[in-house]
Amino acid sequence: MKKNTKTLLSLTFVAMLFAFAATNAVHTLKNTNRLSTDFSQSARENMLFRKSADAIYGTTQQLMGKKGLGGVHFASGSLIERPSAYNEVTVDKNIAEVAEFAKNTDFNVTLAVIPSAFEIMRDSLPYTAYDDRELKIFERLHISLDGTKTMLCDTRSALERHSDEEIYYRTDSHLTSLGSYYVFSELGEALQYGANRIDDFEREVAFKSFRGDLYEKAPTLLIKSDTIEKFILPGSLDQTLKYKGGLRDTIYDDAYGYTIFPGGNHDVEIITSQCGSGRKLAVIKDSYANSIVPFLANHFDSVHLINLSYFNTNLQKYLTDNEINDVLIIYSADNFNTNEFDLIG
Amino acid sequence: MTFSSITFILFFLPALLLIYYIVPKQAKNYVLFIASLIFCITISPVYTLILIGSALFNFLSGIAIDKTRHKKTAITFNVLINLAMLVFLRTDNPISTLCVAIYTLRALSYTIDVYRRTTATQYSFISFILYMMFFPLIIAGPVVRYNDISRQIARRRSTGTRFLDGFSKFSAGLCKKAVIADSLYPLHSTIMAYDLTGISAAHAWLGIICYGLWLYFVLGGLCDIASGLGMMLGFEFESGFKYPLTARSITSFYSRFNTSLIRWFMTYVHTKGGLSLILTWVLIGLWHGFNGGFVVWGLATGIFIILERYLLKKPLRRIGIFANIYTLFVVTVTLVPFATGNLYDALTFIRAMFSSYGGFGETDFIYNLSSYTVLIIIALLIAMGIPKSVYNRFINNDAVKYIFAISGFILAISYI
How many inter-chain contacts (A to B, CB under 8 Å) are there? Predict the structure, then answer.
């Protein structure tokens, strides 16, 4: 290369590097709370093109043969989180809590524990990655709850029958609307409704190119992004959703990604549908219930979504005061295995 | 602040380069000194004070050794004080400890050279303290000798080519450290965390090979970064890692692995004869840390080098590729005490490497191996210098080189 070209090249390059460094410095300093955070950490988090840098990191790690990142496996075609190790003490406490709650009430109590993709999609996990940590939770549930007043919904078998379909998101830990539909149909027996057939619904695309919570942990571009669908009944009912300080005339939020489903960060959300069933359902839940709720809302006059992490009043009293008929408890298996719930208070 | 941090790469370095190239020539060394001071303070303010104190002590020692008639007393006193620093200033912080260890070698290189009259006494404190505290060299070396640097502190020239080549070296070093070494590290630490009595031979070999590669890439990477930064500021010093995996004797291996450190010991510690050589190697081991593992590594390496000098020289030349296999085998096995730190673990580990227990079938082993195969192959190819020879032979084009450098830079930043 000629000397002049080289000088020009080096100057251009240096100018670009400086322009990037300067823009980045301004950007970082603007977004950094210098008093409360460690600067180097914050400079890293607030770097320009942070997301692209993460994607380069995750993608090259997968190309180099790593089996996962941040507790999330690179399975074939999807990301699958590794659940926490089986914790019998917590599982037993939670089962006892549910059984005790059901024993002392007149409501029908149904428990649905949602298995993770780690259990259902185990065939797509990397070689030797699978173990029966989550299967043990379901075995324990069946042993402990069979023959008690609590109805146990066999979500695991329902989802296993459809494990070749897209029942989990590829980049998010939750069930897709399709997966949620299968859980909803399985719940029909316990909650005594005739579930709609899958052909009854019109499937509307709410999001294309959605990348969810698993992508945040293992940002690889070698796994395709997801589509989020809404399953809508043609000519469906007027529905409203009420929460502390707000009311909207659709159950869906116009947020990003999985947060479009009802059941955000509120203690209680109440969905009212004029379906004429005369029944009221309370769902005690974590986020795994959110995509199931739209299906349930078609069968109950009102559905009360109760998030125990934010709920401060006496549950028993709340349910009685609101003339609830059925109580449905929905938790992810991982949540059921790691957090102790307080239903009785 | 470390070299592989966003703070250094996107804040400290651009600001320094901008100021460095704007200010007039006379001010450049002051800019570098202030930058080095800031860099040291971000590592540890207390250590910065100690380093300044030590620089002052060695600066005055240099003058004293030059002027006094009792040169021997003066140098002995200076060496003892420096060794005392090396021994007593070890902390739990590995970066500070490494800083002091390398710093001491740099100080001794100066005072011993003055004593041996192989260099002129430095009367400018700013030039001296810049030699002692120059930030690219402060963390992991290379251990430059005073003579190599003092001339460049007084006079140096920056050109566009040198700057770009420096940047290329810097980004190659960042990739070695942040992409390869940091990705290899989890495997080695996972294997070491197992119960060592229960691991299979295959697993033990995987662990120690991975450790060796990690060591090569972390030290080589940091030295490349230092050398690249130096070039960007108009300096020139070698990084000291030259593809040791193709070496055909232990002697040759360690003349290509951390060259600057070993050369320092050969210049200032080794005198003559086999015993002195073995002693020097034990001291090299001790320099890394005061525990049996390092000493045994140094001792074993020293013994093999002596064997090669007196017995194996000719046979090794005749067996070609087998000499290479012998070298890697011995280096890997002797690395075990270095890796485990304590002798008991080293013995257990070596026993596992040569036992038939467990075979190849452990599921953990297959999982670990398949997770790291590609990375280990890439690391081996780079450590053998194959990408470099392919480039030299078939491409050899500056534009391509700089495109690689920029891509490597972006890749490394993504890993930081």
Answer: 87
